[in-house]
TrEMBL record:
Organism ancestry: Eukaryota, Metazoa, Echinodermata, Eleutherozoa, Echinozoa
SUPFAM superfamilies: Rnp2-like
Protein name: Ribonucleases P/MRP subunit Pop8-like domain-containing protein
Cellular component, GO annotation: multimeric ribonuclease P complex; nucleolus
Coiled coil regions, renumbered to chain: none
Assigned keywords, A-Z: tRNA processing
Domain Ribonucleases P/MRP subunit Pop8-like residues, every copy: 16-79
PANTHER family the record matches: RIBONUCLEASE P PROTEIN SUBUNIT P14 (PTHR15441)
One of the Pfam families matching this protein, by short name: Pop8
Molecular function GO labels: ribonuclease P RNA binding
Transmembrane region(s): none
Length: 116
């Protein structure tokens, strides 16, 4: 696989006690904080896109270049506190199991016979 290929991670942010309301931009900020905490300014500058987000269950789909996957995954795994609250990211679907949103739409259209 090309090292510049996009990889998608389906992740969930969980809090030990009651979770604060986390808007989309806040979720992106927490991901950036995790990268900065482990990899410094270089990590914080890494190109990670939040392509889908559900504020109800704090679940998001992140897109990252394959060459940066290990850095992102390790930063999310080791991140443990947000504003003095214990928290953890869980990777819900591994890259090989995840269908990117664009591909999902193509699959959906094919199953509907092109209608929709």
């Amino acid at each position: 696989m090309d090292s510049s290929a996009d990889i998608y991670l389906d992740v969930m942010l969980e809090f030990e006690s009651s979770a604060p309301h986390v808007e989309e931009t806040m979720f992106e900020g927490i991901v950036t904080l995790a990268l900065k905490q482990l990899h410094g300014d270089v990590g914080a500058a890494m190109a990670v896109d939040l392509v889908m987000y559900n504020s109800g269950n704090l679940q998001g789909v992140l897109r990252v270049q394959e060459s940066d996957l290990v850095k992102l995954w390790s930063a999310l795994t080791l991140y443990g506190y947000y504003e003095s609250q214990r928290c953890a990211f869980t990777v819900r679907k591994e890259p090989s199991d995840f269908i990117p949103p664009k591909e999902f739409r193509k699959l959906e259209e094919a199953e509907l016979g092109g209608c929709g």
